[in-house]
Write a structure and sequence with these properties.
Belongs to the leucine-binding protein family. Helices cover about 40% and strands about 20% of the residues. By secondary structure, the chain is an alpha/beta fold. Strands 9-8-10-11-12-15-16 form a seven-stranded mixed β-sheet, sandwiched between helices. A five-stranded parallel β-sheet has the order 4-3-5-6-7, sandwiched between helices. Strand 8, helix 6 and strand 9 form a beta-alpha-beta unit. The longest helix is centred in the C-terminal third of the chain and has 25 residues.
Length: about 400
């Protein structure tokens, strides 16, 4: 896999504060002079979850390339620095520290996993370095641990996301399962991780509120390959559907083993399993399985067509369809914020920590048409775009079957 972990290192360029310097040591941040700034990316670029992680990396790369080509911020050239967190919180925290330590970095896109985000937020916040995730959906990341009781408090002012939360996704999936699929008994499984467990919990609560019944619940570990005992429990529960909270790495094997054991019921999950890799690995038995994902299908958006063409023409690895567009918009929000700071400062960029602080403030005021829709954030740092889509495996491909906005309440 092509991994741009060394696209830009702190020592690779003679940079100081957040700009390049001329031979006389002057700060080149004014009009007509050159400044190089870095957009960081953190995602799983190898191993588990790498198909979607690479989509984040290359979605951000296209945004950087477009900004430079269009001279979006005159006098500023943007670079990408992509770090591999391997879907591990500890590695994500190390990467956050590395990005903070690189004084050319003015913002970061990522990570993929909500559990990894929890380990990074405090590091970025302490440095006033803006972080925009294209994929994190755990509500507590923006609304605090007591969000379900209505006591919403934003934990970190530096954290934003372009993906809507599981408070919406879980309820949206439950409503579709009950009202459209007419399912009555669902067996709920999760991978014990922040994203998977949270999503499964919300789905189950909303499914029951809408009149359904939880036929059983169970948990698996990330990296598990043999799900024989789980399959037996599901079959004995008489469930007419399985809901899985977690990533595609496990769900693609669960559905395969379940169908091979004779249980001809669909498996449904969230955006963590919405990738072509799921279908490729599970094979024909995945036919009829379902997944929800954030936003409107990228292929149907006129605003995303150039992005898709570029991604394919560059032969980038990974999956652009899940989070590639949201990564592009996240990186663009950071780039536009740099431009806004420069304009507000008489055409010159502040230096050092002041630039990061001003960029963070400007991101919070974002309001522009991105390739996935309007890019704007509420007081918690959540996207104002709450569109969601249900996809179903049809003839070996994910096909959109319903797109709507959901508020997270059973109705």
């Amino acid at each position: 896999m092509l991994i741009l972990t060394s696209v830009l290192t702190t020592g690779a360029l003679s940079l100081t504060a957040c700009g390049s310097r001329d031979d006389d040591g002057g700060d080149n941040s004014g009009d007509g002079e050159s400044t190089t700034l870095t957009i960081g990316v953190d995602a799983p670029l190898s191993g588990e979850n790498s198909a979607t992680g690479l989509g984040i990396q290359y979605g951000s790369q296209i945004a950087v390339d477009d900004a430079n080509k269009k001279n979006l911020v005159p006098g500023v050239t943007f670079k990408l620095k992509a770090l591999d967190d391997k879907a591990q919180p500890a590695t994500g925290q190390q990467n956050a520290s590395a990005l903070v330590g690189d004084k050319t970095v003015v913002g970061a896109v990522g990570p993929l996993n909500s559990g990894v985000a929890q380990s990074m937020q405090q590091v970025f916040n302490a440095a006033n370095l803006v972080q925009i995730s294209p994929s994190n959906t755990a509500p507590e990341l923006t609304q605090g641990k007591n969000w379900q009781s209505g006591d919403k408090k934003r934990p970190y002012a530096s954290y934003f996301r372009t993906a809507t939360t599981d408070a919406n996704q879980g309820g949206f999936a439950a409503a579709y399962a009950v009202k459209d699929l007419k399912k009555k008994r669902v067996f709920v499984v999760d991978d014990k991780q922040a994203y998977g467990a949270g999503l499964a919990k919300i789905f189950k609560e909303q499914f029951v509120k809408l009149g359904g019944k939880a036929a059983g619940t169970d948990h698996v570990n990330t990296g598990d390959k043999d799900f024989g005992s789980l399959v037996t429990k599901i079959k004995n529960s008489k469930a007419d559907m399985v809901y899985y909270g977690g990533q595609y790495d496990e769900s693609q094997l669960i559905t395969k083993q379940l169908k091979e054991a004779g249980a001809k019921i669909p498996l449904m999950g969230g955006d963590g399993m919405f990738t072509p890799t799921y279908i490729k690995t599970a094979g024909k038995v995945s036919e009829g399985d379902l997944a929800t994902s954030v936003g409107v299908p990228a292929d149907t958006l006129p605003s995303a067509q150039d992005f898709i063409k570029t991604y394919k023409a560059k032969k980038y690895k990974g999956d652009y369809g899940t989070y590639g567009g949201y990564s592009y918009d996240g990186a663009t929000a950071i780039i536009k914020a740099v431009g806004a700071v420069k304009d507000a400062n008489g055409g010159k960029l502040p230096t050092g920590d002041e630039l990061r602080k001003k960029v963070l403030e400007a991101v919070g005021k974002s309001n522009f048409d991105g390739i996935t829709g309007t890019v704007a954030f509420d007081k918690y740092g959540d996207t104002t775009n709450k569109q969601l889509t249900v996809y179903q495996v049809t003839k070996g491909e994910w096909k959109a079957v319903k797109t709507d906005e959901y508020t997270g309440e059973a109705n």
